[in-house]
Amino acid sequence: MLSTKFVDESRVELQLPQASKEPAAGQKRDPIEVGVSASGEYRVNGQTLINTSPATLSAAVAKVAGESRDVPVTIRADARSTHQSVVTAMDVLGRLGFRAISIATVNENRGTSAAD
Predict the structure, then answer these.
(1) Residue 86 sits in a domain of what CATH number?
(2) The model scores a pTM over 0.85
(3) pLDDT tens across 26-39, in order?
């Protein structure tokens, strides 16, 4: 035979620590958008880059993101852009440490959407 005594935990009074409901400054960041034109040119948040070099794309994205790598990134590629241009953008983002990368698509019935 085994017996035990259960403690009524509702009697334990706890004073929980307080936290702000607002995120700390710098945590709330807008998503980053990388555009790929039909000719293979890159844009970062609407700004056209001076060339199509992966190093230039990397520097531009790093400048926009700062130290944060948890910012979501959306690639918006023209349907006529080369597969290589899109893969290069994905590779640059992956090497920088971004993990939330989406590719924007257009649904004929509903407009623009993003797919992971």
Answers:
(1) 3.30.420.270
(2) no
(3) 555 689 999 999 99
